[in-house]
Amino acid sequence: MDIDSAWSQFKEHIRFEMPSKAFKDYVDPVTYLGMEENRIRLSVPDERAAAWIRARLQAEILNHYQGHVPDIDGQLSLELVVKEGNEKEEAPGAKAQGGGEEKEQVEANAAWRSLLDSLQGTPLELPSSWEEETSARWDAGGECLIASVPPSADSQWLEKKFLPVAEIFFAQDHQQKTLLLEQRGGTGYADLLVKVQRGAYEEIVQPQKIVPVQIYMFHHWLPVLSASPFWVVVAMRQISFVNQAQDNCVTKPVSSRNLARWAPMRHVQVIDWLNKGGFSGWFFEKTKDSFEDHPPEYQVWSKIPVAPHHLAWIETFFREHAEEESAVSLLEAALDRTGEIRRTKPGDVDLPGSYQEKRRTLVDVVSDVFPGQLTQHVYDLITQLENQIVRPNLSITIPHYFFRKYMEELTANEAAFIWYLRSLYRENSDDTLCFEGFQPLESGL
């Protein structure tokens, strides 16, 4: 490709990768002037188009020329020449006094208009009047784009629908920068204060660093294990990275001191609970004792097991109908009764004594009741039933900050109560949270 045709080729390439209105307003009128000392010179219709191209396309243009035009040595740069007669008239001395501020204002508005253009292809249905009624400016540090929107704009729509989508598109073109909305007619200080508070909170708490704990664990395993073994299980799953495991289980050395970092108890208490066995053995088992400075090894299963009272319900159901039904038909029947199974609480059914002695799974139940019927189809139905009962994707996310700052101050029961309580909140259609009442606490704890 020769250097003079590179711009035409770039325009054809970019035409179908951006909103048609943005292409028509900002890119189509641009013409190629030539190359001078590794400087690509383009003619643009006005300052607004120049600011838009600098904000959105400069890096792409330079990469295109660098990759498609041979015999270019050294670093390329871009010069945008505004067509004569299209510059804004300035009062005498204005350029010297406020030229920098005006340029920043133009660039801020260009970044905002570019964002609005990108959002035209989304279901947001932006008001057509926004192009004239809105404006933007950069904060003093150039780190936050503050967009002013009309006071008539619905604040709930802005906060719940527009801003989450706009922030995603904004971050694609302005990494490490933030977007803030303020409605005209007010000072905007409250919004800015919220922004500062939110930034400080995220800096301190780092809420993106989390430990996911399935709601099923709180509602059905916490009453079975009791609080201290429950936190040992959570800690074991966390430090073995079993939540990210692709295999059925993970085997690794585990130190009681490391476990204590993720549990509201001292490491000697952790050791005590590790040696007690019980239902925590459904989650992990020791495979090698400690030796000198080497901690013991544990095998940690990646799946959350079906709780014993649910497994006992299923096993009773299977044994009652095993003579007249096949494994497939009874598994399909159990799938239809998932709600009934999940409503079964600890104490509602009698557990076989063997349950506490050895880990038991749904595969074990089916193989015992229906020997020789473990086909691939049966395995698939077992997996489906396990997922519908446990619902592994429904989790409470506990920030690392909670473990670092609160666990030493709380007992195992207090920490379990806090997060069990949080698991009982539900989000309504209007995005508010409500508490279901005290009955679930009584039945759960």
The first-to-last residue Cα distance is 73 Å
Assess the beta-strand content as a share of residues: 5-15%
Give me the count of strands: 13
Principal-axes shape call: elongated
Low-confidence stretches: 88-98, 427-433
The largest sheet, given as strand count, sense and whether it forms a barrel, is: 3 strands, mixed
Average the pLDDT over all residues and give the rounded result: 82
Helical fraction equals 40-55%
Secondary structure class reads: alpha+beta
Across the major sheet, the strand order is 1-2-3
User: Radius of gyration, rounded?
Assistant: 31 Å
Helical segment tally? 21
Molecular structure report:
The chain is of the alpha+beta class and 445 residues long. Helix content is 50%, strand content 15%. The protein has 21 helices and 13 strands. It has a three-stranded mixed beta sheet. A three-stranded mixed beta sheet has the order 4-5-6, sandwiched between helices. A three-stranded antiparallel beta sheet has the order 8-10-9, with helices on one face. The longest helix is centred in the first third of the chain and has 26 residues, at 94-119. The protein is elongated. The model is unreliable at 88-98 and 427-433 (pLDDT under 50).
